[in-house]
Amino acid sequence: xxxxxxxxxxxxxxxxxxxxxxxxxxxxxxxxxxxxxxxxxxxxxxxxxxxxxxxxxxxxxxxxxxxxxxxxxxxxxxxxxxxxxxxxxxxxxxxxxxxxxxxxxxxxxxxxxxxxxxxxxxxxxxxxxxxxxxxxxxxxxxxxxxxxxxxxxxxxxxxxxxxxxxxxxxxxxxxxxxxxxxxxxxxxxxxxxxxxxxxxxxxxxxxxxxxxxxxxxxxxxxxxxxxxxxxxxxxxxxxxxxxxxxxxxxxxxxxxxxxxxxxxxxxxxxxxxxxxxxxxxxxxxxxxxxxxxxxxxxxxxxxxxxxxxxxxxxxxxxxxxxxxxxxxxxxxxxxxxxxxxxxxxxxxxxxxxxxxxxxxxxxxxxxxxxxxxxxxxxxxxxxxxxxxxxxxxxxxxxxxxxxxxxxxxxxxxxxxxxxxxxxxxxxx
Length: 428
Ligand code: AMP
Hints:
Blueprint: H1 13-19, H2 26-37, E1 41-44, H3 51-65, E2 77-80, H4 84-100, E3 114-117, H5 124-129, E4 136-139, H6 141-149, E5 160-163, H7 166-171, H8 175-183, E6 190-195, H9 200-209, E7 214-217, E8 228-234, H10 240-251, E9 256-259, H11 263-275, E10 280-283, H12 289-300, E11 306-309, E12 324-327, H13 334-341, E13 351-357, H14 362-371, E14 378-379, H15 410-423
Parallel strand pairs: 1-6, 1-7, 2-4, 2-5, 3-4, 5-6, 8-13, 8-14, 9-11, 9-12, 10-11, 12-13
The protein binds adenosine monophosphate.
The site of adenosine monophosphate (AMP) has 16 residues, from helix 3.
């Protein structure tokens, strides 16, 4: 077991095997010994790098090796995450590992307890779940503070703090909540900060938080995305849905994650795909928490072939071996492009990322490529030859494929309809 060389206790091997991890990923190789030593860690790592287990395994071991006496479990490890989805994923991994740890004898220390708390759902079950305390709490910052305010938990015994996806925590406006949480923690503790990117605010947070951290860098640059096969298809705006359906059918894609620019577009495209005979669901921030969980679980378990989503799913969610990602609407930035396509090709598996490029977004696509040092050829799927005229860079700007003053004219539409009719018996 190559994990053994990192200092993990043999009691954890069964769990690692059950998770299907044959060998540690690079971030795990560096982080696990550092966390076990008690060092602060600053890791540049994306979802997909194995970052969760990189801190979850050694932190659980530290708690497991130092069991508390009977009585209420004080929070000893706090993991702060930006989204409910990530909270659930981290919680699932922790519980899976705990399930495989040797059970303590009746007179031994009580088993470790994990609690996962996040906003957008009723607070009462979470309060009940915290009765008797929890050794390890995974939380979004706002709900954590609510629970502290209502006396459901205390943070004055925290020994290990993890900020997972720190850039996203700050992006989502959690800076004030973070400050409030940090003020409740004891000064002496181990701090781990993980982030995909390091803008000035994240760097500032790291400087303020960490003492002589072990620095770990697993950058996801264009070169590191080599395991993902990337394609760009030129297509007319109005024919993207038909092309997508054609690709899904013709190439037998299963579990396709499709990114669009808005909640409305997600619903609209999912509706269209369903009407076309596929099983597609929309996933976005406008859904209730319950609906989001249900949709995601359904997609993970293969109940839907297509998940049409906004950038809500671009980071954080993890679906094992997601084979295909489609940029139906192009992402806003090159960084978002990496996050989106990084949903496939996870943990060493190969993946496919397809971007649909319309005339109006051609200049934007070229910019993304330049930033990512990519030079993908623009391909055309037979039967979907574009008819729209290219739009000069300066006019490309509505973020959604259409540009004012450059919408297809009546003549363009007639031409497109004629092309559609000509190919209606074509590719399917
Ligand atoms: P994460 O970056 O933590 O979101 O993990 C991404 C995916 O990689 C998850 O599906 C993990 O189960 C998987 N994973 C993590 N570590 C390993 C490993 N050592 N070997 C194989 N898969 C792993």
